[in-house]
User: Fold this.
Amino acid sequence: MPKVTEEHRLARRAQIVAAARTCVIEEGFHKTTMADVIRESGLSAGAVYGYFKSKEEIVAAIAEDALSTIDELFQKILATEQAVTPLMALEAAINHVVAVAERPGGDVTRVAIQAWAEALRNPAIMATACDKYTVLRGNFEAVARRAQADGTVDPDVAPEYIAQVLLALIPGFVLQRLIIGDVTPDTYLAGARALFRS
Amino acid sequence: MPKVTEEHRLARRAQIVAAARTCVIEEGFHKTTMADVIRESGLSAGAVYGYFKSKEEIVAAIAEDALSTIDELFQKILATEQAVTPLMALEAAINHVVAVAERPGGDVTRVAIQAWAEALRNPAIMATACDKYTVLRGNFEAVARRAQADGTVDPDVAPEYIAQVLLALIPGFVLQRLIIGDVTPDTYLAGARALFRS
Assistant:
């Protein structure tokens, strides 16, 4: 029997996460069952349960997958030698969201919107959403602190409050993109540049 | 038999809308059935169907009810003699959202989040959401035009794009308020004042 390598394990895990993403996009979080995910993945029930015990665990993995490269993105912004501005962070984040949404395998922002609704009545999803958005907001807070140090943002306002507004612009973009449909990074960032000081 | 007055009709209609709001908040849009709404309202099935043919129609009425006073709010902002700024509109809109959310009978922003998720797979809900958010964004666009005329916002940027960003700040606030829970109008508007030119 071949040894199950770590690479093999990760590929299997990714296969399950992709199957769950497809199910949630097509049927909604609520209607999707573990049986649907198992069928869509083409794996056995035993194999799937070996990786994930519940839909909630898979949704956490979808979120993890979608947000995994965000920290890198912010580290890159904070590493620049020029003055950091909120607009730089917003531009990078919005372009990133669209790039992730357009990946093959279905628009993961559709899963995010399902997760927000589900979070209101499912404590495990709520904990995941709260955790992920708190981390993401922490990244915007780091940008705000850096911008304050650089003199591009008023240093007398709590960076946490500035981060609340910057974070809000991500779901606000995602929703308009899916519901009204006419917003693009270009139009949105042009609007932000008109409104923002820096 | 007493004549059914218009007042009586409106009270019955409000009773059904309130019942549906309670059901959607407690059970989610997806699990809520017309039978649940009928039971919660205390009216007969015939009475309820006399007002609404489907869950979709009731959700449209919940949205209508929640957004009905927004136009007035924007007309008040635009009627001011002082220079209009995006921050004035944002402050008024955020305070309004919290006032509506805190009305007795359940937080209607929880229904909004359910509606966003449902819109992705239900064309009737999508049409309602698209319509309502387009109207709301049109109000922010009127503010942007006025601010451009007053000289508080760069006149060379399309007011539609500015409105995309201002509209985004409403669901972005609503989500953080319900999911992370630490955002208030005071903290959020302080953050916006640090970021915005005017």
